[in-house]
Design a protein that fits this description.
By secondary structure, the chain is of the alpha/beta class. It is built from 13 helices and 11 strands.
Length: 330
């Protein structure tokens, strides 16, 4: 009976998910044009692969890799080469992990200030360690865009989905940050992963909306290469339906590369938790970044989508964003 009710509401949520994806496509509409000039306008940094949460919808719970922090000298070398290749945007977002657990995060951001070419600095966090002081220090260090992931604003739901006891701390952090004189100096989005049909009816949601936060709401999550199943997910949260075809490159092909905590480079900073062979360029411990990003891996991936020779990890993915075009621009 429970699954029947859950399935009954799925079409409604699929429609809202399509609307969300359309918004994402609109937001990143310039990436394809930017890519015509430079394939690597963005570099994602996995400063650490440690996390202080254990989300039911995330593959971190199955990650058996050694927990590491990206060496600072390797990081500096990567940034130097990335900028020399025309890079403009740096995002601090682990494939799995919590960015604010990176003890070198502030030093990494401050290092970017030597390059006026870097015009955008993003940070993704679960907000547990994001006190007002930390937020202000991040803005002062150069952060331009902040994304905070959470559940709907109900303590029981949060503890069920994020599987930690820090809900009250998160709410306190969000309230205090909104009072900061730096609040309007960077773009702030709260990403809600929810098992509720109507999360916008929540009193706390309305409160934070009024304070000036922007929201992205999602009832659908990826299966993380078949690691996450519907029966793992509570309430009205679903694994997104599998696609019938993958006929054009995903957004991740356009968004740039990810430097992982162990020094390896992957094209998919979104779901490549297992260091997929087809997605990995190599390791900057062994080969300079500028050589890796020009070694043909990106072009092979792009051509594979156009020729229906899609990597296995992409075939299993349930949340790609497509431009629905097979044009060979590059």
């Amino acid at each position: 009976m429970k699954m029947n009710v859950k399935n009954f509401f799925m079409p409604y949520l699929i429609i809202t998910n399509h609307v969300r994806n359309a918004w994402i496509k609109y937001k990143y509409r310039g990436f394809k044009q930017s890519l015509q000039k430079n394939k690597y306008v963005q570099l994602r940094i996995e400063g650490t692969n440690k996390c202080n949460s254990n989300c039911v919808f995330c593959a971190y719970q199955y990650d058996k890799s050694e927990k590491k922090t990206l060496d600072f000298e390797l990081y500096k070398s990567a940034i130097d080469q990335f900028v020399s290749e025309g890079g403009e945007m740096v995002s601090f977002i682990p494939v799995v992990g919590e960015a604010l657990l990176d003890k070198l995060l502030f030093e990494r951001m401050k290092y970017l200030k030597k390059y006026p070419e870097i015009v955008q600095i993003e940070l993704f966090t679960n907000g547990i360690l994001l006190t007002k002081r930390v937020f202000e220090d991040l803005v002062d260090a150069g952060m331009t865009d902040l994304f905070i992931s959470t559940s709907g604003f109900e303590k029981d739901q949060y503890e069920k989905m994020f599987r930690n006891s820090f809900y009250d701390k998160l709410i306190s952090n969000l309230a205090e940050i909104a009072l900061s004189d730096r609040f309007l100096k960077c773009s702030i989005n709260i990403i809600i992963y929810t098992d509720s049909l109507f999360p916008t009816f929540n009193r706390q949601y309305k409160r934070f909306k009024k304070l000036g936060y922007h929201f992205l709401i999602n009832n659908f999550v990826d299966n993380w290469n078949d690691k996450i199943k519907d029966y793992n997910l509570p309430g009205f949260m679903y694994v997104a339906p599998k696609l019938k075809n993958h006929s054009s490159p995903c957004l991740q092909i356009y968004r740039g590369i990810t430097l992982r905590a162990d020094g390896s480079l992957t094209q998919c900073g979104c779901r490549d938790v297992d260091h997929d062979r087809e997605m990995t360029f190599g390791n900057i411990k062994d080969t300079p970044l500028h050589e890796l990003i020009n070694n043909g891996t990106w072009q092979k991936l792009y051509d594979g989508f156009c020729n229906k020779n899609v990597p296995d990890i992409c075939k299993k993915c349930t949340i790609p964003i497509f431009w629905n075009s097979n044009e060979r621009d590059y």
